[in-house]
Every structure is written in structure tokens, then in C-alpha cells.
Amino acid sequence: MSLPERQFDLRGLKALAHPLRQRILYHLAFVGSANSTEVAKAFSESTGVTSYHLRQLAAAGVIEEETSRRRGRERWWRIVPLDLRGLTAEASTEPRADAVTADLQWIRFDRDQKLITRHLAQASVDPAIEKASVFSSSAAHLTPDELVSFTEEFVTLLKRYWRNPEDRPAEASPVAVMLYAFPWPGEPR
User: Fold this and answer.
1) CA distance 25 to 107
2) In 33, 34, 143, 172, which residue has its Cα 20 to 30 A from 189's Cα atom?
3) Could you read off the pLDDT of 98-123 as tens digits, one per residue?
4) CA distance 11 to 13
5) How high is the pLDDT of residue 135?
6) pLDDT reported for residue 89
7) What is each CA distance from 65 to 31, 49, 70, 172, 187, in whole angstroms?
8) How far apart are the first and last CA of the chain?
9) Contact 20, 53 (CB under 8 A)
10) Please, are residues 17 and 108 in contact by the beta-carbon 8 Å criterion?
11) Where in 13-92 does DSSP place strands (E)?
């Protein structure tokens, strides 16, 4: 499946640059859909807080209401399948875009670091998926164009395995997939 790319203005970028909203996005990516009560329980927050953040994410266009599950005032939310690599393209000329982008990068890094820490701190519930898991890092010498090409190939591979919830095999487990590729900053002095 091809995931559409999405570009954000500064307001949309700011909506994403919030620690709880980043965690909610990942939560929805893993569980499929949830209402504000379920999200509140997952993060030990009030339903008022999670309802607000869900609406902000919806306004940014990264989640949508699952109207078929709506019961009265209860709203169910699911992630909108998007390629979010180009987060700053539209906002790059706006004042503060660089600062908001930097904040978002740090928030996402912190979210990912905590996810890895939680994984390492607990035993896996599925030994088969744990055995198939990999922690890998490597080094390469790439030109800027080669790094772009490498990233595109990685994303193409990832998209090949993305499926709508109704199309996922019953034995499929939620798997966090991360890639960090950036210029080596050298050793601290």
C-alpha cells in the first residue's frame, strides 16, 4: 500500500510537537483504534485531557474519527496512514518553523528512547516475535544523495508490510520499527 505524504503548516507542526500527542499517535498505531477513555487509561490521564489531545491530532489530520464505532458521545479514533517524513516542507518559510521542528525531533527521540527502554525492561509476551526481533546498528559512508536513496528504499520496504487492520494476519504482532540515519557527530571531547 502506498502511504500518502503529508505536509504541515506551522500550526499543524505545533499540534504534533507535544509529548503526549506523540505517544497517543504511537498508541493508536499499535492498538488500531481507541476512544478517549481507553487512551486516558493507557497514559494515566483524565478523559478530558486525552479528548482534547485527540481533537488536536484530528485537526492536524493525522487521526480521524472511526464513525462506524460512534455510540452517542463516545468517539473512536484511528490513525490516518501517512508518510510523515516531510514534516517541515510547507512550514519551512514560517518564523519559528525550525524551532518547532527541532522540538518535535527531540520529542520523537524521547518517545522512541522510552519505548526501547520499556521493551528492554520487560520480558516479551511472545517468544517467537522476540526471537525474530533485532537491535542493529551499523556505519556507512554516504553522500547526501545516497542517504536520501537509502531512506527511500527503507520506507519502500516498510510500506510493503503496512496493512489496514482488517487485512492483518491473526498472528501478526505490533512491532516498533525505527531507523535513525544521520551524520556521525564524532566522539565527545
Assistant:
1) 12
2) 143
3) 888 889 989 999 999 998 888 888 87
4) 5
5) 83
6) 47
7) 15, 17, 8, 24, 46
8) 46
9) yes
10) no
11) 33-35, 63-65, 76-79
Residues 23, 40 contacting (CB under 8 angstroms): no
Residue reference for cell 493508536: 28
- Going by C-alpha positions, the residue among 10, 8, 5, 15 that lies closest to residue 58 is 15
Q: Which residue has the cell 551524520?
A: 183
What's the CA gap between 154 and 173, in Å, rounded? Answer: 20
Q: How far apart are CA 155 and CA 103, in angstroms?
A: 23
Closest CA to 12 of 90, 83, 80, 65: 90
CA triplet 46, 48, 54: central angle to 5 degrees?
Answer: 105
Residue 4 neighbours by CB distance under 10 Å = 8
* Residues of the chain below pLDDT 50: 89
pLDDT score of 98: 84
